[in-house]
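Re-run with default settings, no changes from the original entry. Doing this only to confirm the output is reproducible before filing.
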Amino acid sequence: MTVLAIIGGSGLYDLKELGDSKELEMQTAWGKPSDKILELKANNKTTYFLPRHGRKHNINPTNINYRANIDALKQLGVTDIISISAVGSLKREIKPGSFVIINQYIDKTIKRANTFFDRDLIAHVSLASPNSSSLEKICSEILKNKNYKYHENISYVAIEGPQLSTFAESHLHHMQGFDVVGMTNMPEARITREAEIRYQSIGMVTDYDAFNVESDFIDVSKIIEAMKQMTGKAENIIKDLITSFDIYAIDNDPILTCLDQSIVSDLKDVSNKTKQDLRFILRRYIAKKN
């Protein structure tokens, strides 16, 4: 059974009208997620929505509780996550107002807890292909069918923030060939893989990063306005994803069992505290071992 979750902005709560919904107060071993999770039942499917910055957009990118967010969704049986976030363009041909389908990451964050496996249970999951090919395919198909401008095979450089890049930083990222810059997809993509959940990120290009800006500063109010203008299109994409996200999913997708090849510790040597805290992340793995 496949179950979809959307992680994005506070506007996700506007989708309540699509069906029967309720808000879920969740708790994890890493604390509470960013906000209550919206459960929506529509088209004979259950979909979950989580605003990563909180519904009032008052959580700094660094302070997002990424582990709690992913663990809470894992508790709910989520198998697939679509991330939607604002990004800045690092290439002139990737214009504001377009969408990008991200498939690679460069992580320059330095302050964030970025793994579930930081105690006495060690796992080295492969991130060579950090996103899901099945989700990437359906996202591309939806954007193409809606005739929305979009770009594929996009590399995303994650910066710590909350400040935007200096001109020198932005120019370096541009010269290095990165496509877009953002603040939230890492470590989100990393720990989603550790949770054996498929992941795909769609970026909304709201502005050019500093390398292509003539003035001395970027007007954040214009970025917010660009996001608002793209919200309607993003909601249309989400509506289609709810009904079709699993069209290309396969039952034997290696992402769903990646811990079998990644855990190097013997469970008998792992503390009960660690196993208890990771009980939802390890549920399938432990059941197989037993």
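The longest helix spans residues 220-244. The chain has a mean pLDDT of 94.
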